[in-house]
Specification:
The structure is a single chain. It contains seven helices and 14 strands. The chain is of the alpha/beta class. The chain has a single domain, classed as Ribonuclease Z/Hydroxyacylglutathione hydrolase-like (Metallo-beta-lactamase, Chain A, 4-Layer Sandwich), CATH 3.60.15.10. A six-stranded mixed sheet has the order 1-2-3-6-7-8, covered by helices on one side. Strands 9-10-11-12-13-14 form a six-stranded mixed sheet.
């Protein structure tokens, strides 16, 4: 299987990386973890980031089959429905989004919030496979940051004829100098994250990991690709030799010091709805809820 075409787009306001994964032979493509621009001060959404993505995909002559989410993000809004209207494709996520919906429905007292996985078009089970053109993709359930996190693994052959894998890992890990995902959101669990990460780090050392975020120090530019070997050698939280108990203690203590993401409340309410905004009320206006003294 030939190497895929991978193009990534960094969104500075949310430190999010959106990936386009495409089969160069058939020009079929997937968009992974898209961004809808949102000003939390005014409550306004805009589509500049999504429009740049649409323009690039059009210029490359790609046809989008999939709009993939690694999880229900708490730090940015998904642009999947907007991209679907302009590019087509199915909006897909791991099947455990149902557990995430069930956790957050009572928090927001959202009577219209589904807990059956809708309105996503496709829910993936752990180990399930699907295609992007001639590329085969395997879904890996990697909970811990949330109950529903998944990774997308693509195996292929590099230019030298050697087997190679690319895995799109969402928030499970960050660049080695930043570490690991927080586990203090409802449904998160540090022990579960440790075990998910060990599953990823058991892959071939040359496997490339494509991240959903980077929060770079001033000494380097944003980056979002590293290898399993690099993570095992240098991840500040999860390098080889860090045992489960030590990680859980560190992660739990660190999470107690972290403020909530600025977009947590709007992002969760929208992203568990597959990026769809809440339905308009009688006056034609859409509203988000802010639970007081709860999160």
């Amino acid at each position: 299987m030939p190497a895929p075409l991978i193009q990534s787009f960094f969104d500075p306001p949310t430190y999010t990386v959106t990936h386009v994964l495409a089969d160069p032979a058939t020009r079929r493509a997937a968009v992974i973890d898209s961004v809808l621009d949102y000003d939390h001060r005014s409550g306004h959404t805009s589509t500049d980031s999504a429009d740049r993505l649409i323009a690039w995909i059009g210029a490359q002559g790609l046809a989008v089959d999939w709009l993939l989410e690694t999880h229900a993000h708490a730090d940015h809004l998904s642009a999947a429905p907007y991209l679907q209207r302009h590019l087509g494709g199915q909006i897909a996520i791991g099947a455990h989004i149902r557990d995430v919906q069930a956790v957050f429905k009572p928090i927001f007292n959202a009577l219209d919030m589904a807990t059956d996985g809708s309105p996503f078009d496709r829910l993936f089970q752990d180990g399930e496979r699907f295609e992007i053109g001639s590329l085969g993709v395997e879904v890996m359930h990697t909970p811990g940051h949330t109950l529903g996190c998944v990774c997308y693994r693509v195996d292929h052959v590099d230019a030298g004829g050697r087997p190679q894998s690319d895995v799109f890992i969402g928030d499970t890990l960050f660049m080695p100098d930043y570490g690991s995902a927080r586990c203090d959101f409802p449904g998160g669990d540090a022990t579960t994250l440790y075990r998910s990460v060990r599953r990823l780090l058991a892959l071939d050392p040359e496997t490339r990991l494509h991240l959903c975020h980077d929060y770079p120090p001033s000494t380097r530019a944003p980056a979002w690709v590293c290898t399993v070997a690099e993570q095992r050698a240098a991840n500040v939280h999860l390098h080889d030799g860090v045992d489960e108990a030590s990680f859980v203690a560190m992660r739990t203590a660190r999470d107690r010091t972290l403020g909530k993401p600025a977009l947590l409340v709007p992002a969760i309410q929208i992203n568990v709805r597959a990026g769809h905004l809440p339905a308009p009320e009688a006056n034609g206006v859409r509203y988000l809820k802010m639970p007081l003294n709860l999160l």
